[in-house]
Amino acid sequence: MNPKDPANTIERLTNALNTIAVSGKSAKERAQSALITIIPLKRDEFPITAQQFYDFIVDQANHTDEQAPNVLEAVWNLYWEMSSNRRYR
What we know:
Strand content: under 5%
Shape: globular
Structural class: mainly alpha
Distance between the termini: 31 Å
């Protein structure tokens, strides 16, 4: 356990990104896999600025195929919101 991240948030989000990136599954299946990785985390473990992404992932990951790319993007955004790394632009 990382004392700076007791819930292993960054590890879980990194694992979710790995699932998104390397899985040969459909977008919806990848969104569902990411949800399974993230769901042990609790909403209140995130700062307010990140809660919108968490809520969207939890609410939308098991819905339509059309919504899956948006869920995947929300996982990406949630990672960057929580990471101490900087986004590449």
